[in-house]
Structures are given as C-alpha cells and as structure tokens.
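Reference record
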Amino acid sequence: MARKETSESENPGRLKQIRLAYQMTKRVDPKVGLIVAAVGIVTFGAFLAIGFLIDHPIWAGILGFLLAFLLMAIIFGRRAEKAAFGQMEGQPGAAAAVLNNIRRGGWVVTPAVAANRHQDVIHRAVGRPGIVLVGEGNPNRVKHLLAGEKKKMSRVVADVPVTEIVVGDAEGQVPLRKLQTALLKLPRVMTKNEVRTVNDRLRALGDLISNMPIPKGPMPKNIRMPKGR
C-alpha cells in the first residue's frame, strides 16, 4: 500500500517537471511543440502505412507508436537541452552549473576557486584525467587567473597534469554546451586513490590560504616597522 502511494506521489512530480521543461523550452524555441508533434505523427503514419502494405496494420501501428514516442522524447530532450544552455550562456557561474552534472562520474568539483571584481571566475574539477581548470569571463583576464591558480597549486600538486579550458565560442575555447563532453573525453591518467590524494592536498591548501591572516583594510603609508632588539 505504501509503495502504491509513493508511486502515485512521484508521478505528479515527474509530470510537473516535464511541463516546466516544456514551458521553459517553448520560451526559447516557440516551434518545439510543432516539431515534436510532427516527428511523432510522421513516424507513426509511416509505420501504419507499411503495416497496411504488409497486411499487419495492428502490429505495425503498435511498433510505430512506440518508436514515435521514443523519437519525440529524444527530439524534445535535445531541444530542451539546447534551450537551457542558450539561457545560461553568458551568465556568471554557468560553467559551474554544467560541471556539477559530472560529479557522479567520479569528479570532485570546486566552484569559484579564483575570481576577480569583473566576475571572471575559475572553477576546478579533479578526476582521473587530473586537474581541470575551467575559466569563464574575459579571455585576457581569465588567462591571468589561470596562471595564478596553477602557480598556487604547484606548491602541492606539481606532478599532476593540469588542463586549462576557457568557456566561449571563440577559437581555442570550448562552448558551454560542449564543456561536459570535453571533460569526459580527456584521457584517464590517475587512479581513484590518486584522485583522492590530490583532492586532500588541494583541500589542505585551500584551508591554509583561507586561515592566513589578511589585513582588514589598506596598509597605512610610511609605516615604520619596529626595530629588532
């Protein structure tokens, strides 16, 4: 009885997610409904016509209905994904949202390990391919942030391969929609234990830097340091 109630409560949640995804996609892609429906109708109609030709319209219709539903789901999923990335592109932190989707693949993602007042930011992902630094923002400023982060990490993980990725559509950059694929295509060079060790080192480095005493304001000019006795 409890299982039945659970499944009934889950279905409205899933339907609501699908409805919200469709509404979001339609705002960016107004023709998504017509395209998905056309794919389904054409696929089902083609199989039904073949069924009449071979004198098995019922079986062909069932097969056509299932295949039409599958194709409609695939087309809608791709267009919904494209619409989602289109809305995120250019937004601060968009790359971090994409990187969070690869956590289940054994990656450890740390958003915003470096940033500046212009909202250029560096995210770090550690996995079996090594360390991946992902920068988003102005390419020239991001370049300096990447260099600074690599120098900082070299204190504790100098022997670990580091891959730099700048998100964007210019030459040499990786589009946001292809970021996850780019990371998953990297060759694996470390074991799971080595990944864990690297993460522990980087975490310790972050704790050390965050605990360093930092002056809460500008240093006064012409200050005289006390002479040692």
